[in-house]
Design the sequence.
């Protein structure tokens, strides 16, 4: 999903603890918005509405944990 | 207010049907071509949605000389085509008008997208006289808007071809971002930006030229503008921020300012044309660095928390600004803040700033 929204195939194998913002992936607001839209479409979790600070976008691992927690709720 | 008109081709912009005309292709409808030009001069975008091969769009473009901001040619539903155009241009469906001679197409779009203003070609011919097609301010940026979106289509195509990272693409495209203090001549465009921006707007309410003129005159406030250009085109003034509390110690008649520990940014706004081009990240990096250089210990951005400005909140998070959990006030705002110690966000080398 991340590789798709950024158009960068090399991100397919990115480790779950790589920071999404800043030096690691360099997720910007456009790619971030597309990623959240895809997450909402595929998992039915509206991250933007539930996570004020969007801290769940720290890494792929935190995002996956956030989605899992909301789906179980 | 209508920001984009989506036009049908057959028997609308053309006086006949493109595919049924053989070698003798139909001409452009003179009345609607005039409307197209008039609206473009007012900063209203044009797009095409047609059940035709892409060559039909090229033909209409040549014939009318219009810059179409988005083109959807295919045999799918027109409502889907309009939804894709809205997403591509970052325009809400209630700011879109759709013109088609075919009653069934109009009915399908009206049912699927009730916010879209659906018009017959006869109604479209009258549209330039209607208030929703008459913006109060028409700036230089507005008059060039269709052209800017056409440049954006070419830039987007090049970015999709490009294999490397976003920063590599921005550098290769010759991106130049200039941050500078606002002057009086910028005020009409700044007012227009405050009305038109939603996705990248922290305050969520318009400011008037009088408000802005007051801020320019006040020693406690600083208004900075952001201009963006690259090899594909010059987008002009795309964004701005207001900073308050830094004492404006660089002003010509500055008295010795009291030490200010917090710099507050009541407004950050950026055109959605700048989305994905590093402009907002660069502006936030500059705000952090400028406030730190003025001796502030903390940067605060009060930001409306809505579904529409998620891109703004993402940029704030990326620049290290955080709000306290559960701190959204009754007015829908939360204060995003960060300390100005330690490592500040980097300013790319293609940024020119004071």
Sequence:
């Amino acid at each position: 999903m991340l590789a798709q929204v950024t158009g960068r195939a090399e991100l397919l194998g990115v480790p779950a603890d790589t920071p999404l913002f800043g030096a690691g992936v360099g997720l910007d607001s456009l790619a971030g918005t597309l990623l959240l839209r895809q997450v909402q479409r595929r998992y039915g979790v509206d991250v933007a509405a539930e996570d004020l600070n969007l801290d769940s976008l720290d890494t792929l691992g935190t995002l996956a944990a956030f989605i899992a927690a909301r789906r179980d709720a | 207010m209508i920001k984009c008109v989506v036009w049908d081709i057959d028997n609308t912009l053309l006086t006949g049907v493109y595919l049924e005309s053989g070698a003798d292709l139909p001409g452009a409808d003179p009345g609607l071509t005039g409307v197209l030009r008039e609206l473009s001069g007012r900063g209203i975008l044009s797009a095409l949605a047609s059940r035709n091969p892409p060559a039909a769009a090229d033909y209409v473009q040549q014939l009318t000389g219009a810059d179409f901001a988005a083109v959807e040619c295919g045999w799918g539903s027109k409502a889907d085509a309009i939804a894709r155009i809205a997403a591509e241009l970052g325009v809400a469906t209630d700011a879109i008008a759709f013109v088609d001679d075919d009653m069934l197409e109009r009915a399908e779009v009206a049912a699927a997208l009730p916010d879209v203003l659906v018009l017959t070609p006869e109604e479209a011919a009258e549209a330039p006289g209607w208030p929703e097609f008459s913006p109060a301010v028409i700036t230089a940026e507005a008059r060039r808007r269709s052209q800017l979106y056409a440049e954006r289509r070419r830039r987007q195509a090049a970015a999709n071809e490009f294999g490397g990272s976003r920063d590599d693409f921005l550098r290769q495209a010759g991106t130049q971002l200039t941050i500078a203090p606002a002057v009086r001549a910028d005020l009409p465009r700044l007012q227009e930006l405050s009305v038109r921006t939603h996705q990248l707007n922290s305050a969520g309410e318009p400011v008037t030229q009088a408000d802005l003129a007051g801020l320019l005159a006040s020693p406690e406030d600083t208004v900075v503008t952001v201009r963006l250009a690259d090899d594909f085109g010059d987008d002009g003034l795309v964004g701005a921020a207001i900073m308050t509390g830094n004492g404006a110690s660089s002003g010509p008649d500055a008295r010795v300012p009291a030490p200010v520990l917090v710099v507050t940014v009541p407004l950050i706004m950026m055109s959605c044309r700048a989305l994905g081009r590093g402009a907002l990240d660069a502006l936030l990096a500059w705000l952090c660095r400028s406030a730190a250089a003025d001796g502030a210990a903390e940067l605060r951005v009060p930001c409306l928390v809505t579904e529409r400005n998620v891109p703004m909140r993402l940029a704030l998070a990326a620049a290290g600004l955080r709000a306290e959990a559960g701190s959204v006030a009754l007015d829908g705002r939360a204060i995003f803040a960060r300390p100005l110690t330690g490592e500040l966000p980097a300013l790319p080398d293609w940024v020119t700033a004071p």
